[in-house]
Amino acid sequence: MATQNFGRDQNVELMRRVHAGEDFDVSLMPRCDVQLRGMGFSDNGADLELRLRATVGGMLLDWVLLALEVRALKVDLDYGERGMRMPMTWDMLIDQDRGQDAWFVIFDFASHGEVRFRCAALEIHQHVARAAEESASARAESAAHWVIVLDSEELENPDTDLAWLLPEAIEVRTDGLVVFDYWKYDPGERMHLYFRSAEREAGLAAIRAALAGGPVCGNQLSEVLIGWREGSGESFDAVSPSAAVGTQIAAVAR
């Protein structure tokens, strides 16, 4: 059997899909520090549903892992008399035997025990994501859209590679909290790079931290022009650097 591991690249891709409203598969599913919030058999009695939760990239992610045609199920959990919290994984093993079309799964809860089973298939049945510190104000500021404007005259190296390398650096440095949309030149030949995030304040903080994290193509980018808007519109409000705050940035159509 070939073990499916979970690492940094998978984490970024997972959050990219979550923020884009796209489905993700078992290969991208978090493994460590995952809460088992419930489990039960579906109506046909042969499929097992496991309700799971993890905090990933500043988001609280809930999903259902659906195991089809479960067999050899073993549930061995012991939290003692003072156990007052939901089981949380220390690690998870998910192996697939493609030749026999079978899966072997172990939820390892360290000293508290394990859940293990075999099944015919594994699916992500549904998922919901929201800000980990969600509040009324955070929900009101959700789905922020961002533009980063690069003026070639202010760059050490205005190479077009920035259109690909800078979005990659931001997505990786923010663990997928900020997701790239597209890029275009404006009429003044300035490069516009468009992003989105699930929440305004966290998104702006993540973008600033990513831009300050080191040069990209030899360019120091901590003072580049950043604008934001909520939803669709024709312009962005500049939020950085401080000298540009309050000015409008016209959007360039895709």
The radius of gyration over CA amounts to 22 Å
The profile of the biggest β sheet is:
6 strands, antiparallel
The strand line-up of the biggest sheet is 11-12-10-13-14-15
Task: Describe the global form.
Answer: elongated
Ranges where pLDDT stays below 50 over 5 or more residues in a row are 1-8, 134-141
Give an overview of the whole structure:
The protein has helices at 8-19, 136-140, 162-173, 200-211; strands at 2-3, 35-41, 48-56, 59-68, 71-77, 91-97, 102-108, 113-119, 121-131, 142-150, 178-185, 191-199, 225-230, 235-240, 248-250. It is α+β, with helices and mostly antiparallel strands and 254 residues long. Strands 11-12-10-13-14-15 form a 6-stranded antiparallel beta sheet. The termini are far apart.
What is the element layout, followed by pairings?
Blueprint: E1 2-3, H1 8-19, E2 35-41, E3 48-56, E4 59-68, E5 71-77, E6 91-97, E7 102-108, E8 113-119, E9 121-131, H2 136-140, E10 142-150, H3 162-173, E11 178-185, E12 191-199, H4 200-211, E13 225-230, E14 235-240, E15 248-250
Antiparallel strand pairs: 1-6, 2-3, 3-4, 4-9, 5-8, 6-7, 7-8, 10-12, 10-13, 11-12, 13-14, 14-15
